[in-house]
Amino acid sequence: MSFPEIRPRRLRQSSAVRNLVRETSLEPRQLVLPMFVREGISEAVQITSMPGVAQHSLDSLRRAAVEAAEAGVGGVMLFGVPAVRDAIGSGADDPHGILNVATTALIKEVGDALVVQTDLCLDEFTDHGHCGVLADDGSVDNDATLERYVAMALAQARAGSHLLGLSGMMDGQVAAIRRGLDAEGFTDTLLLGYAAKYASAFYGPFREAVDSQLQGDRRTYQLDPGNRREGLREALIDEAEGADIVMVKPAMSFLDVLREVRDAVHIPVWAYQISGEYAMIEAASANGWIDRRAAVLESLLSIRRAGADAVLTYWATEAAGWLRD
Ligand code: PBG
């Protein structure tokens, strides 16, 4: 009798067999490209801590979005970097504000090919850098912030945004925004609830990307990285409030939360591979310590395997190109 009797390696003997039995797929349509557009510049400005990622001008934004569409990615998520900021983030709901102007421009350019999405949060627009408005004692005022979010949601919907990314982590934000949009007839605008968004150290490069003014941290509204159940609870609340999709963010340090959320809700679950995750792989690759392309694709596959139906990633266009080769 030969030994061993059970040989799992049989399924790994050739690339043809491995291809046939691979459990998880990764396709361009499952990738969403986050993009930054900055007010008042005529040429793109590179972001030092995110090599290959730029703050776009309106023109370079349009060109990059067309490239993403041609590569077959599923959508783009827009972040605005305004020239002027104030305490309540007035630029966020100004129809002439950079994010809203850029949204309309992209809808015109690629709106039929891509799901054009907008970040809905005040932090890029406030002079204190918090995701909401502040009470007299300096704390973030949840319910006053909800009113600002509804105004921002209406401005984004009027600009044509297909999907609003609710990333502020205020209680009741999904319900308040859904109600506000429905009352104005925007019943088809999709809502992505950033349900399980953690107060992460890996947001570092993003703060440069949006010229963040933040002093201190976001720990009174973003989740504590030690909490799994609380992330799950947030996802269930967002689904009950009417979110069309929920997000887990960051991705790679929260793959367990991602799996649990995927198993618990009945709507699509997305994950955001954030700036620090991007920067880590770029830095190691630049030093020749890891194989860049293989590491990027493995990271995206692992996020899909953990349960993400789609992934926001700064590599979306490039990875889509590789996947189509
Ligand atoms: C906040 C926001 C953050 C990111 C997107 N929107 C994080 C933060 O500063 O708390 C991070 C994205 C990234 O790091 O790639 N509205």
UniProtKB/TrEMBL annotation:
Keywords of the record: Heme biosynthesis, Lyase, Porphyrin biosynthesis
Catalyzed reactions per annotation: 2 5-aminolevulinate = porphobilinogen + 2 H2O + H(+)
Pfam families: ALAD
Pathway the protein acts in: Porphyrin-containing compound metabolism; protoporphyrin-IX biosynthesis; coproporphyrinogen-III from 5-aminolevulinate: step 1/4
Keyword Lyase (UniProt): yes
InterPro entries: ALAD, Aldolase_TIM
Enzyme Commission number, as recorded: 4.2.1.24
Role description: Catalyzes an early step in the biosynthesis of tetrapyrroles. Binds two molecules of 5-aminolevulinate per subunit, each at a distinct site, and catalyzes their condensation to form porphobilinogen.
Family: Belongs to the ALAD family.
Quaternary state and interactors: Homooctamer.
Name of the protein described by the UniProt record: Delta-aminolevulinic acid dehydratase
Organism listed in the record: Microbacterium murale
